[in-house]
Amino acid sequence: MAASGVVSGKSLIVSFGEMLIDFVPTVSGVSLAEAPGFLKAPGGAPANVAIAVARLGGKASFVGKLGDDEFGRMLADILKQNGVSDEGILFDQGARTALAFVTLRADGEREFMFYRNPSADMLLKPEELNLDLIRSARVFHYGSISLIVEPCRSAHLKAMEVAKDAGALLSYDPNLRLPLWPSADEARKQILSIWDKADIVKVSDVELEFLTGSDKVDDETAMKLWRPNFTLLLVTLGEKGSRYYTKKFHGSVDAFHVNTVDTTGAGDSFVGALLSKIVDEPSILEDESKLREVLRFANACGAITTTKKGAIPALPTEADALALINGA
Question: Which GO terms describe its molecular function (predicted)?
């Protein structure tokens, strides 16, 4: 364990799902066809969250499958170099590591074209899971891309069940990527199929509209996604900050205004920051003033992540986030 730079003495956050390589155009505001060249940017929301946690001084592990190819080995090395435990990583001999070509529009938003037919992450089987690692998680975090196809879907459901039975807090960020789903209806159905299992759910304003069918991003719409067993529901609003809903209170926290270059990984950075703060002190979720302070920290982390291209290089340290908070 010590060899991979993992922090001891803190509670473990296990992040489950896909890790892939985004190919990002060297020039912003052009289509894929017009792009003169591409840079490799390691990513995948659950992997980004694990690295976000580790960069903030937390203890993180990633569970997922990579291709037994140069890109897969590169991604495993990136996790290790960033202090994320690699005990949950598997390599598939027969399938490649997933790739995505990403268009950065002039406003910093993204469009995706995926190469996954099938990719290694989709082939993770329930019997391949490191159940001891999953049982040792204090927080178990996941998305919805791992629900799209079998056998990964069954592995996802099994991992969630094992983590829950072992007493972990379940954290869910659907991270909607419509091009990967057979249809919008199927995406909505499957994303919501595990909705009531989570303790903490984070959605973006776009996901809120997609899942509820509403064109309003307000408290009433957000409460359509609330479930009685939730501890915390979060709606991120980009430059408008974030909103929070618990059993006893709800409110909003303003964003930090920065020079946005690329929004990739901002939501993952936000989630990693939140989880890193609550994993050892879950009582924060019951205390509104403490929760607001943590969400301000998470907003700062999300904002900093938009100031550089790519997710992983842009993820902040605690000192980076505090500098933005104290300078604001």
Answer: ATP binding; fructokinase activity
